[in-house]
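STRUCTURE REQUEST FORM
Protein name: Transposase family protein
Source organism: Pseudoroseomonas ludipueritiae
Requested output: structure tokens
Priority: standard
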Amino acid sequence: MTEFRLHLDDVVAVGGDVLRFIGRTKDHLRIPQWQDMRTEKVRQIRDDELAKLLEADDGARMLSPEDAKVALETGAPPVGIGIIHLEDIASPWERRRVERLARYCEAWREAGRPPLSDTNLLPIIDAVGGELGELVKLSPRSIRRFARAWDKGGLAALVSEAKNRGRKTTLSAEALGVVEDRIWDTYLTQRAPSVKMTLEAVHRIINDKNERRVNGDPQIPLPSKKQLQARIDKIDAFTKLCLREGEAAALKKYGPRYAGVVTARPNQRWELDATVLDVFAVHPQTGEVIGRPTLVVAIDCHTRMIMGWYIGFAYESFVTAMVALRAGILSNGALKQRFPGLVHEHPAFGMPEAVAVDNHLAYSGEGFKRACTAAGIKVLYTPVLKAWWRPIVERFFGTATRRVFQRMPGSVASNVLKRNKETPPETVAVATLAQIEEAFARFAVDEYAYEVHRGLKTAPAHAWKREVGIHGVIPPKDKQTLDAALAIIEERTLQHYGIEWETMVFNSPAVAAARIAPGAPAKHRISVNPRDLSSVMLFVPSEGRWVRVPLVKPVPAEGTILTFDAWCLSRELLKDDAQRFLDENDKDGAFRRVHAHVLQMFAEPPSGASIKARRRGARWAAWDKRPRAADPDTYDEAASAAPPSDDLFAGMGAAAPGAGSPGSGGDADDGASPAEGGGAYPDGDVPPPPGPDPAPRRGRSGGSRGRKRPATPAEQEADRAEPVTNGPLAPEAPAAVFFREDGSFDLDEAAKALGMDSEDY
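Status: completed
Returned output:
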């Protein structure tokens, strides 16, 4: 019920009594107290009771001081004034409502109090509604009800009783005070206790108070959980979350949302970021785990097209950023040559106007700024620890992780606490770096680009084609100019031991001379060629020329060239298994041995311990490369009769090993063979696409645990006609080596070709 604004010494006549208002009770109920002006007895009349008395014909009437004085002196029945002034209503909203309804009632009185029919009330409603500017007019039925009440009880009859409906709290004032204190001091704290724990704290306090009460004093009733929850529900959700979990969590969930990134054309804004993949990559020959690769992606904000990427063991750095940028700027038409399994071409390329990055050292360094300035690209730095300033690339990382990397054997959760009792991913990982890159390329080019994007309402590839047709694409500069702009030029402080770059040390007499030269700057510029790290170029300002500084630490394998990707891979192997390459007699030769291992890792025969891992990898590769198109209509009787195990090994010959694959998604000049050191900046041509998958070879049994059965004559004839392979790791050999003249399979010869014992085979 709305609380009346009563003033001291206000007078009301109730029946034959004349009552004077003397104040309200001091508890939370605030009940009005009235004193009989004849007997001086005090009685309480609630606001809702007073409203009902004022509405009744023979109920209460508000008296003016003069009428009250006459009634007391003469004893005559009091004549009330019958109204309550608008300023006496406490609620502003209720005051405006009563004033609005009173205007309709006064218009009805000014019209001569006609019968309350629809015909008589409609003109009044139209006139008053137009005067008040109401968009929704009241109905004649409502005006009829309000007019009758106003005619009997005045303005008091128009006061709403909506707040007086429903169940009222049964908590005492003391219990309610304890509940409110515990809500704000216990429940709404960073400890974030539950409602049950808060209720237990309330009960402890109330029980302590009840124990200290003397005999005869009433006990404070204990509130229930439902009553406590009802008081908590009256607090808005933002306040509860802010006090329990912090302002950042409350703003993230209930804060305002804005339009986000708004672009008008393709290549207007790119987002560039890197993440460590949630999957382990293994040695392509031995199956040993190498580590988790790094993915760097450049994405166009206007069309959501993936422009370029890098996948490798290099950490997020200036080098990997330049690889991804260069791959996005140049045409990606050579992707189908590097990955023959791609169905579509990758049409996205061009020079970006701006690139949004975080504050990682890879992007905040002078080298990245200089390269972007030379290429005419504006760098946009986003605030620290606010990933939502780059929402597009962050969302893409989540999509790619769920749909590609978490489906691979060896997938690992970013949080180690979420592993629970699952199998350690290092023991089941089978995907090589080349397979991871190929799976990502297929997802980015064939799936993500041609699926309807929820934000665009169309596929990114279709959006690119439409927008490029309208706005066009800024053509990239010629290759020489682009290479000069995106060259790996950084600034380093010259030390007494030389120049340090990516934990490698380069030194020569020219470094010492440049360091002590008159007017030498604090930092000198160096140029790095990732294809050949045997030396770096140092710019000497005093002479105005570049000088070559050789690599002194670490020392690569004799007669080989160290590339950037080979260095990153060697560093990962040393970090994971350093004891394998250490030698007490030659402690400084550990890197030479690991570098030689990296160069020879593809030429080594597989070990018997890796056979299971290779078989798992073959099964995964066959599943991952399953055809997306519908099955052919023709029926192959021979294929239908073959056991299901043959299908699992059908795609083993399609894998193309390459631990040094750059993963940049760039042109044909971006890939060197692993035997040449591998790297993101190769010199050679694109490796030839692998040939068609070999026909499946029938095993010795129908399944891993099935009983042996003899091959049928048709199967023996097919085995003689087709070469036998054991996946991508088996050496090439004619079929005659594995089969005898009688058509039986020669197990010893096959095991010898694989460098294994026949029992292990």
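Reviewer notes: The chain has 26 helices and 18 strands. The longest helix spans residues 92-110.
Form closed.
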